[in-house]
Design brief:
By secondary structure, the protein is of the alpha/beta class. The chain is 44% helix and 15% strand. The protein has 16 helices and 16 strands. The strands form five sheets. It has a five-stranded parallel β-sheet with strand order 2-5-8-1-9, with helices on both faces. It is globular and about 60 Å long.
Length: 417
């Protein structure tokens, strides 16, 4: 992870001391910074470290906590969930099975501390949750078999009110490059004491701040840092996805202009690692299923997928995508609704094949005319039969020297090319 040097050093040393002291040296941390600054990503990097494989890692959104658990989780429910995970890493000790050391990451703490949330009885729910958390952070409260003194708490929040306050102060101190640059430099060199004062100003209690030795500001990530979150081979969004593909005997490749498009959108919407991962999953969509269903080995992603173009499978990579005209017939039903008589660009052979094979399997193979001409054999599935009809068409037309073009007419008993 590039940048965020202060945060990385403090988190690294806190975790190191926590582990080598077997939980005796535990210093809770609060990470403050805008959405997309890498707070959650830092926790994920810790979770992936082989040196920490015996620890129990638990990621929880603090904004889901409520005093009584009626509309969310009360604190005992949170630790019940943690306990279920921790039990999977229990080891034998002198007194039998022992719970492992753990690290709990509490995200969106800014939705709890420093923000009132009054219920119908006039009680401040957030204040109650904060008080409950204080005993856990202090390590003085047990929940079931969970000893909170054996847990290191890393908390995080965007605290947008702080960012708005800083912006307002910069504007009040004057307009001009020198003044604004000086204010920005001061913001980037904030100490834990500066942050404590700011947090106290927006309503975070002194009790809470007193329980947290380390309060660290994290800057907004640069484009280069966002790029690393995407393409890092070990920990990046694409890197993790490529590992998953490799474990399943597949490969995933992508174009550089796709990376640039994702970076543009990450900057536009203040996204971090989680947002980028969600964007990639949405982009891939059902392509993973299509790979396994059709026996493809490689999936290639490109910028055009943001504009409803199909991904490229296997031998299609680097070749012209097919131009397909689909003519709707009386037996097509809603399958090709909306594309009657239209030319559909950039569907690709794989995409149109997946749609056609379904139709052929459902409608055409039961035709006596085709059944007489094609020996389906015993134990053959409709989809296998459909593939035998369709696959040669696309393989024959998908040569490197020709521009593929298929005119497909689906009739009552036949498939006219």
């Amino acid at each position: 992870m590039r940048g965020q040097e202060e945060a990385k050093k403090i988190v690294a040393m806190s975790v190191h001391k926590f582990v080598i002291s077997e939980g005796k040296d535990r210093n809770p941390i609060l990470l403050e910074g805008p959405t997309g600054s890498g707070k959650t990503f830092m926790f994920q990097l810790l979770e992936e470290m082989p040196e920490l494989k015996d620890l129990c890692f638990f990621n929880y959104c603090a904004s889901d906590m409520t005093p009584n658990g009626f509309s969310g989780d009360d604190i005992s429910n949170v630790f019940s969930k943690y306990e279920r995970m921790a039990r999977q890493k229990m080891k034998k000790g002198g007194n039998g099975l022992q719970m492992p050391l753990g690290i709990i990451f509490l995200d969106e703490m800014d939705k709890i501390i420093g923000m009132s949330n009054t219920d119908s009885n006039g009680e401040d729910c957030n204040a109650i949750v904060t008080a409950q958390l204080l005993t856990a952070i202090a390590g003085t409260q047990n929940y079931g078999s969970v000893d909170t003194s054996k847990i290191l708490f890393i908390m995080a929040g965007a605290f947008e009110e702080l960012e708005n306050s800083r912006k307002k102060k910069r504007e009040e101190h004057g307009i001009g490059f020198a003044v604004n640059a000086s204010a920005k430099e001061k913001e980037n060199s904030m100490t834990g004491y500066d942050l404590r004062e700011e947090l106290e100003e927006i309503g975070v209690s002194k009790q809470f701040l007193g329980r947290v030795p380390y309060i660290v500001h994290m800057d907004r990530l640069s484009r280069a840092q966002l790029r690393q979150i995407l393409v890092d081979k070990e920990h990046g969004v694409f890197g993790k996805k490529q590992k998953w593909f490799k474990r399943n005997g597949k490969t995933l490749t992508y174009d550089e202009d796709l990376v640039e498009e994702i970076l543009d959108r990450m900057e536009e919407h203040d996204m971090g690692a989680r947002g980028a991962a969600a964007m990639l999953e949405t982009l891939i969509g059902t392509a993973e299923y299509d790979m396994f269903a059709n026996g493809y080995k490689n999936l290639h992603l490109h910028k055009g997928m943001f504009f409803r173009e199909e991904p490229v499978f296997d031998e299609q990579k680097g070749k012209s995508r097919d131009l397909v005209e689909v003519r709707r017939s009386e037996y097509c039903g809603d399958l090709f609704s909306g594309v009657q008589g239209q030319q559909v660009h950039n569907i690709g052979a794989a995409g149109i094949l997946g749609t056609l094979r379904q139709f052929v399997a459902l409608q055409l193979v039961h035709s006596s005319q085709i059944a007489d001409e094609q020996d389906m054999g015993v134990g053959r599935t409709d989809h296998q039969f459909a593939d035998e009809i369709l696959l040669p068409l696309f393989h024959a037309g998908n040569t490197a020297t020709a521009t593929p073009l298929a005119l497909i007419h689906i009739g009552r008993d036949s498939l006219d090319i």
